[in-house]
Design a protein that fits this description.
single chain, 356 residues, alpha/beta, Thrombin, subunit H, 5-stranded parallel sheet, 5-stranded antiparallel sheet, 10 strands, 44% helix, 14% strand, disordered C terminus
């Protein structure tokens, strides 16, 4: 095998499909454990999902996570493909993040759907309510832009080393190679999940793998790659263990070990951060309903029927909502208002047309 140091081009004989797996050394498991314990100073590379997850945790955990990651390895870096994916998906993730909820004071995920509320079942749209809604939308847009302009995660990411990336010739070669792989087969490969579900551009993980391959070959170094990918099966199996064929192909091409680590496990073990904490779908749905219960919105309650939302207020430590039902006004605990849902859903364009 050619493991000489210096520039390496991705081409026939030095790519995922054309590198034959090479048996790993007998002590490879111990060496991998050392890598993933960060006992060796090697480059630590982050996947896109790790960067985006920083928006989904609390501010104190985010600071702790960024500090922990910054102290790993001889260098903390990201592939160029990761940086491009991060930039592409960042705004969408920011809109749904705790950072946005802090700015807006309510669930921003729900705010993205507010425009669907005001097309009532009786014919027509209430223009006054629509104006309130559009003002809320403008406020949300302004908050998003303000947060994007003063984004602590983006500022931290911009300070990371970004790999040089692949040439256009290398990308063209890899696209052709990728299209020849069988996503319905049993053999894993980077981007297999995207090949099944992302028809427009499924090459992201495949490009990332080859950026790492070049980094290891040119720098003659082992590498640790941290990812959260466990559902698509692009990097690790269901047990969050790397696919042996990845390690064997990288070892053939570089003579070094490719340490793929689950960022969730590593964050919890080394930094005490529960990096994968997410609300359940029921919690998301209830939070979404809460944010949609704006004054004047028609709602339905299984016991009291249809009603119209009045004011929201705090009583003690409980958040309450006042609703006018045909039988009279009732004050309901908002943390139980998953039962209280909007009556109708509207189309944004209809709303715009109705109010001019």
């Amino acid at each position: 095998m050619d493991v000489s140091q210096g520039p390496k081009n991705i081409q026939q004989g030095f790519s995922f499909s054309t590198l034959e797996p090479l048996s790993l050394p007998a002590d490879y498991q111990n060496r991998l454990n050392q890598l993933l314990s960060f006992n060796e100073k090697v480059p630590v590379v982050l996947d896109t999902n790790v960067l985006l997850r920083l928006y989904g945790i609390s501010g104190s955990w985010r600071e702790k996570a960024m500090t922990f990651l910054s102290e790993l390895g001889t260098s903390l870096c990201i592939p160029k493909m990761v940086f491009e994916e991060f930039q592409k998906n960042r705004e969408k993730v920011v809109e749904e993040s705790p950072l946005m909820r802090k700015v807006l004071g309510q669930n921003s995920f729900a705010l993205s759907r507010e425009l669907k509320l005001y097309f009532d079942s009786f014919k027509g749209v209430d223009t006054g309510k629509a104006e309130v809604l559009l003002n809320a939308l403008e406020e949300r847009k302004g908050a998003v832009q303000k947060l994007l302009a003063n984004d602590p995660v983006m500022q931290w990411v911009e300070g990371l080393e970004v790999l040089q990336g692949l040439s256009s010739e290398e990308k063209d070669f890899l696209k052709q190679e990728f299209r020849a792989l069988d996503p319905s087969g049993k053999t894993p490969f980077p981007g297999k999940g995207d090949a099944l579900h992302k028809q427009r551009f499924p090459y992201g993980d495949y490009f990332i793998f080859h950026e790492l391959l070049k980094l290891m070959a040119e720098g003659q170094t082992d590498v640790v790659f941290l990812t959260l990918d466990t559902t698509k099966g692009d990097w690790v199996n269901r047990n969050k263990e790397p696919f042996p064929v990845y390690l064997e192909k990288v070892f053939r091409g570089t003579g070094h070990l490719f340490g793929v680590g689950d960022a969730t496990r590593i964050m919890e073990k080394n930094a005490g951060i529960h990096f994968d904490v997410r609300p359940t779908r029921n919690e998301e749905r209830m939070s979404e309903n809460h944010a949609l219960l704006l004054q004047g919105v028609q709602v339905f309650h299984p016991k009291f029927g249809r009603g119209v939302v009045g004011e929201r207020f705090v009583q003690g430590v409980a958040e309450m909502v006042s609703v006018d039902f045909p039988q009279g006004k009732r004050n309901l605990l908002l943390n139980r208002s998953g039962l209280l849902v909007p009556v109708t859903w509207a189309n944004f364009h209809c709303l715009r047309k109705a109010i001019g």
